[in-house]
Specification:
Elements: E1 8-9, E2 12-13, H1 14-61, H2 64-112
Antiparallel strand pairs: 1-2
Length: 119
């Protein structure tokens, strides 16, 4: 015999409980990703700042060959920083969407259970 997944548990159905657990786990993973990307973003910003300082120094010394090389490296660092920043923004947007979905599901569940949702 199989279990009845539509059965009731305290506070709602097994399906709703499972969906909430999955959504919560997904949200936790997104938060972990955002923390990693936040650290990566900060480090990428530091690298851009360091590259700019090196370029400024090379230009100040009149080292044109080194300045050209550093200018290329600075542009590469800026491009990579933009990629990290865009990924960070995507994760933040996804976190917001996931949180809204959890709230929507909770409101629907409350309405099904006869609550106003304002409680």
């Amino acid at each position: 015999m199989g279990s009845d997944l539509r059965g009731e548990v305290a506070g709602g159905s097994v399906v709703h409980t499972a969906e909430f657990i999955v959504s919560s786990a997904r949200l936790a993973e997104l938060y972990e990703c955002s923390a990693l990307l936040r650290r990566t973003r900060v480090r990428a910003e530091e690298i851009v700042d360091e590259a700019l300082a090196l370029l400024t120094e090379a230009e100040g010394r009149g080292d044109d060959a080194r300045a050209r090389e550093l200018r290329e490296q600075l542009e590469t660092a800026r491009a990579k920083y933009c990629q990290v920043l865009n990924a960070y923004m995507v994760i933040l947007r996804r976190i917001n969407e996931e949180r809204q979905e959890i709230l929507r599901a909770q409101l629907e569940r409350d309405q099904i259970e006869g609550l106003s949702g304002a409680a």
